[in-house]
Amino acid sequence: MNEQVVLLALCTGLGFGFLLAAVRALATAASLWARGRRVTGRVTARAAPDRRRGGLVVFSDHLGRDFVLDPGPLGPFRGLPPVGGSVLVVHARECPARAGLWTTRYLLAPSFGWFLSATAAFGTAVVTAG
Q1: Which of 6, 10, 7, 22 is nearest to 118 (CA)?
Q2: pLDDT of 50-81, one tens digit each?
Q3: Gyration radius from the chain CA atoms
């Protein structure tokens, strides 16, 4: 087969896969926005031996159980306040262990990244085809 056709098919397939992942992440954020339970959490410091940046968020669900949310290394870039601050946490009603921060950057960053990846893949397919 022609290498150009194979590359075009590969880039188009990757673009559609990335686009599907973006729509799925956006649908997850929309369902959390519509039906999620919002609670207030408190940002606490990590343990001394833990060298990762940012803090941990401690929150309680509607039954009074305590949970710890690790926003990851990009937590400060996604709207995590400094240690001692409070932040809204959103989780699905039946699954508080899968929680996220109630900030626009935290909820929409994955879908934005997938949309950028899909755009790059489709752009590569267009350049390859031309």
Answers
A1: 22
A2: 777 778 899 998 888 899 988 877 777 777 88
A3: 19
The identity of residue 7, as a single letter, is L
DSSP H or E run through 42: strand 37-44
Give the pLDDT confidence score for residue 50 in this predicted structure.
75
> Token pair for residue 113?
């990244």
Of 22, 9, 11, residue with least CA distance to 122: 11
Residue 100: its H or E element: strand 95-101
pTM: 0.75
- Which ranges in the chain belong to alpha helices (H)? 3-35, 104-129
Tell me the CA distances in angstroms from 27 to 1, 24, 53, 98, one per residue in order. Answer: 38, 5, 29, 15
